[in-house]
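Input.
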Amino acid sequence: MVKAILMGAWSGAVLFSLAVGADVGPLLAVGGLAVLVELLTGGRLLDRKFTILSGNSDSGRAKALSFADIGGQQVAVRELVEALEFIKNERSAVRMGIRPLRGILLAGPPGTGKTLLARAAASYTQAVFLSASGSDFIEMYAGVGAKRVRDLFASARAAAASQGSRTAVIFIDEIDVLGAVRGRHASHMEYDQTLNQLLVEMDGLSAVRDDVRVLVIAATNRVDLLDPALLRPGRFDRIVSVDLPDAQGRLEILRIHTARKPLANDVDLAKVAREAYGFSGAHLESLANEAAILALRAGRNIITSEDFSEAMEKVIMGERIQRKPDDEQLMRVAVHELGHAVVSEVLEPGSVASVTVAGRGKALGYVRHSPRSDLSLETRGQIERRICVLVAGVVSERLILGEGSTGASQDISQALDAARLIVKCGLSDAGIVSEDDMPKERYHEIIAGLVKAGQERAASIISARRDQIVRMAEFLCREERMDGESFRAELCQAA
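Output.
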């Protein structure tokens, strides 16, 4: 009633000022300020509506996601399920005197399925699922972030109570934005206040206080940035590592993402999984999707192995570039890439999946490798072979074309990094040493010696196959691409 009277009075004053020819600017400014204050005090600018889904598949609010729908993360799933059992089997936990877990942190590279694991956890416990991100809590206004944290927990309890659930799961993605080490932002205390409020809310989670138990699941790929107070037991009790999948995990993920896609008989998903070394779940989903797009673009009703091969190169390197180098540069690119391919194949038979001189992204050519197994660690011999393959491109250019080019800059940088790794891990002839304390001349001598040994080894392999490389380079200049089987057949025939 009062607001209506004030609004009527303000409107009358504006109309009267217009009628007498007075300046209405001050009145409009006062009105705008009043509207802003009303929005702020009413909470419409401060409140943030969080995404609420039901973990109960019978509710119809969202499609239930189970752990069976997530491939390649058996270890993470097993550890997460173990933690969730304390919530699902509450009576057994109480009988054993087990304190309910308050927080679970999912840590791993981007695209590995942390959000999917959180949704599956909500479904597993039949809990209400609330989703937010760290950036939702940070604003320029002091106290806004802390208020949103309180609202998030209040919304979780209210949503669970309204749906008759005793459990609510709050998922906070990119929590490193919200939970970074306090004191890093010297300009204002908004970040610290927001984190403090989160710590207080997590400390207050207990079955005695509420009829609804709230479990906080957070995700980050930068655990090193988080405040130690957030990681202590009693807040985030479990840190679940969600790593990149291995070959078997990649195969499981591919089977999930191709279950509803028409695949040709020549598609070997196990082979695709082996060649997709280092791919996350998100990369594999994109791979399957790009393969289907390529098949549709070609007017086919099924997805072939060629589509997967082309899609993999697109996911790794990007879209094809339109600019095509002249014949001289194209020959140089072909010789360079074949140098990598030949040395790789000689040192590790079956390692080459394809060789191409079709430019993608910033690369004018590319050799796609197919490792026999995923490596968790490397010996000195394996690192030395990697150095040899890396420098083989520029060595091939020098031996066949007379001089190298700037196209090898990234290869050389990676070779030097690999040589430094040998020294750092105590695998060099100097033994276990400190890189910082070692004389620079000695350090440079060891690094240069490792790279030079790789160059000499590559030169020996390439010199013995010079004519074959030239012949295959001419083929690549015409056809742009050679798959692994054709490459090995040509190499064996040449030998």
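The chain is about 55% helix and 10% strand.
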